[in-house]
Amino acid sequence: MNELELQAKLAKQQNAVHSPVSIAVTAGAGTGKSHMLAERYLHHLESRLSPLEVVAVTFTEKAAAELRARIRKLVTKRLPSEADVLAELEFAQISTIHALAARICRDHWQAAGVSPDFNVLDELEGKIRNAQWLDESLEHLPASVYERLPHSALRSILQSFFDDPVTAERALEHGPEGWAALVEQARKESLKALINKRTWLEAHNTLREYSGKLGDKLEDWRRWRTKP
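Now predict its structure.
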């Protein structure tokens, strides 16, 4: 990277750090996103916000710990006289998205509709518990249900509900009278997504390029075979 490119990169990072509005940064690994995020956090502290008023979230515990360490180092260097800020930083919400959600649910457990002493399952515990709930649900289904659908299909359906309970709850709010409209809407959305895919467009253009002329017997047969 030459000097002009480096200066342009630094200018963009500074704009992102001091932006008065929400921003989205898209960049590859090792391009300075974590450094920029720590600088933006410090910018809010220099604007007289308390660390207890700023939220920073990451995807992993390791990344959260690294971000807190970066911010602590910046505060020590740039705000050496702000002992209160450094102390509050240890209690600041710098965590994973899951930890933030858990804290919100604990602080507002009634609005969240959960028990105040709930626990967050880890990945392995979640899989084990979901498997137990799935087996229990299948055992309690009436025999009349199995007369209409095979066990394998029911297991697949219930598994999808457990994998995405929020979407399942929304889906179950609709009675069968609205299913036809929902299916048609999903069909249109899927078709729209398909024809906008680059691979589909390339295949479509290839077929058009190599298709036979009108009246060609082989082309007529091909069109007949591929007719929906």
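The chain has a mean pLDDT of 85.
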